[in-house]
UniProtKB/TrEMBL annotation:
PANTHER family: RING-TYPE E3 UBIQUITIN TRANSFERASE (PTHR45958). Signal peptide: none annotated. It comes from the Eukaryota. SUPFAM superfamilies: ARM repeat. It comes from Dendrobium catenatum. InterPro entries: ARM-like (IPR011989), ARM-type_fold (IPR016024), U-box_domain_protein (IPR052608). Transmembrane segments: none annotated. This is U-box domain-containing protein 42. The lineage of its organism: Eukaryota, Viridiplantae, Streptophyta, Embryophyta, Tracheophyta.
Length: 489
């Protein structure tokens, strides 16, 4: 009889007034009893009734104000004997409760607090692998909703030492696209909030990484590819196994296609460049040479991308412009360059670097990257500005321990390149208005260019005034300012 009444109630067209008559402790008690019934029909009918009544804010708040309803629905999920239709309804109820809750409700209602408890989250994570594909999809959707809505749930998932093992294992299952996609999205959310690089679960670390790479290289769904690239960008540095797998040609080929493809969103490009940054960390010479072929596209992003795209493009160019002599010799063998005499360097190769084609994977001057990097130097965007300044610093590194061109001549030409590209003014602006860490980087670079003959008298006077101001800053800046003022006067 109760099951029949609950079924009828679930199908009725209730008004707010009629629903308010049901909003009492006695009704909620009997509804909880029905949810815990051992009769499948009674249980399913009560779930449908709860789902219907959640549309009314007063009853919904009553459901959240006590742990009984939420606990009963959770028990249905955790009970492996529950019929699939009831489990589906139970998952849908909890996800709806989370998604429709307001921020202030997250930490105030006992029902949500029960849902977001560490023990419950741990149990949900533990259920992923042994569950059916249908339940795996629901579990991941539920955890994803919790992570996105609640700071408490987010902190518990991140702090659970085995959480990433469960989530990466779900990626390896790959039984259906929904499970993989939900696992991928949840890993993506976790990595974006993780305090450090995200560790891959032993002992099948390589299997997990190959699963992510397979999504990057083979998926036809742009969102999946973008998320896989972002996850790769958060993989642990210094892990030889990870480095070796990432340097496979398929990864670089896929990233090349991603960043070269027109009409991609900034978020997509940000993730692709993030993956490329991780790939070039500790990379071998041949891999860096292949990355160097992406130079035209990366340089273009310095002018056309979002702030983060520009930042990551500048960081990649800095890395390539500082490649080791060993890498450069490999490049020489691959590209069959011949060493010119130093007298012809400034005419036939680059206006700055001696035999730069032999000393670097790329040269910023030849790539046309100097002016876009100068344009990135902005006191109001410290992170991007620092990346640009550090890239410009590579102009003063000739990469040759025994240069045939005198270092002083080399430095003068490098300084001239920055000055000719209107670099003095924005660097001075950073020195004047930027945060202290950025001022340190800007001062190191301006120290290398201020003696150039093309620095105007106005720029020099402004530099002196800024140096006097820096005498009031912290010790490192104050010490450097004193030395430079002594040289200037």
């Amino acid at each position: 009889m109760r099951a029949f009444m609950a079924e009828e109630l679930a199908n009725m067209q209730l008004t707010e007034a009629a629903a308010s008559n049901l909003n009492n402790e006695n009704f909620i008690f009997h509804m909880t009893v029905m949810l815990t019934s051992s009769l499948p029909a009674s249980q399913l009918a009560s779930l449908k009734c709860v789902k219907r009544l959640m549309a009314f804010s007063g009853i919904r708040i009553s459901f959240l104000s006590t742990v009984s309803i939420v606990s009963a629905v959770l028990c249905i999920i955790m009970d492996t004997a529950t019929e699939q239709q009831s489990r589906n309804e139970a998952f849908d109820i909890l996800i709806s409760l989370i998604e429709t809750s307001q921020t202030f409700e997250q930490e105030s209602y006992p029902g949500l607090l029960r849902l977001y408890s560490s023990s419950n989250i741990h149990n949900l994570l533990e259920q992923i692998i042994p569950s059916t594909p249908d339940d795996q999809g629901w579990l991941l959707r539920l955890l994803l909703a919790m992570f996105q809505k609640s700071d408490t749930a987010r902190d518990w998932i991140i702090s659970d030492g085995k959480a990433m093992n469960h989530l990466f294992s779900a990626l390896n299952l790959d039984k259906n696209s929904e499970v993989r996609f939900n696992a991928l999205k949840l890993v993506y959310c976790v990595t974006g909030n993780y305090p450090n690089d995200v560790p891959l679960p032993p002992p099948d670390k390589e299997t997990t990484l190959n699963s992510i790479i397979a999504i990057l290289t083979k998926s036809c769904i742009s969102e999946e590819v973008s998320i896989a690239a972002n996850i790769i960008s958060h993989l642990p540095r210094g892990d030889k196994t990870v480095d070796a797998v990432l340097q496979s040609s398929t990864v670089l080929k896929a990233i090349n296609a991603l960043i070269s493809h027109a009409n991609k969103s900034n978020e997509f490009l940000e993730n692709a460049l993030g993956a490329l940054l991780r790939c070039i960390d500790q990379s071998n010479s041949s891999f860096l040479i292949q990355v160097g072929k992406l130079e035209p596209v990366i340089v273009q992003m310095l002018s056309t991308g979002s702030s983060l795209v520009k930042l990551r493009a500048a960081m990649i160019l800095t890395h390539l412009a500082r490649c080791s002599p060993e890498s450069s010799r490999s490049l020489l063998g691959a590209l069959h360059f011949r060493q010119p005499s130093w007298k012809n360097v400034f005419l036939t190769h680059c206006t700055v670097h001696e035999s730069c084609s032999l000393q670097r994977v790329i040269c910023l001057v030849k790539a046309g990257a100097v002016r876009p990097l100068v344009d990135m130097v902005d006191a109001m965007n410290p992170v991007a500005a620092e990346a640009a300044l550090r890239a410009l610093e590579t102009l003063f590194d000739n990469g040759n321990p025994e240069p045939s061109v005198p270092q002083s001549m080399f430095n003068a030409v490098a300084a001239g390149t920055i000055v000719e590209n209107k670099g003095a003014a924005p660097i001075l602006e950073v020195l004047e208005r930027g945060p202290v860490p950025l001022k340190k980087v800007a001062l190191e670079l301006f120290e290398k260019i201020y003696k150039h003959s093309d620095i105007t008298s106005g720029e020099l006077e402004k530099f002196k005034a800024i140096l006097f101001y820096l005498l009031n800053e912290e010790d490192e800046l104050k010490k450097k300012a004193k030395v430079l003022l002594t040289e200037l006067f």
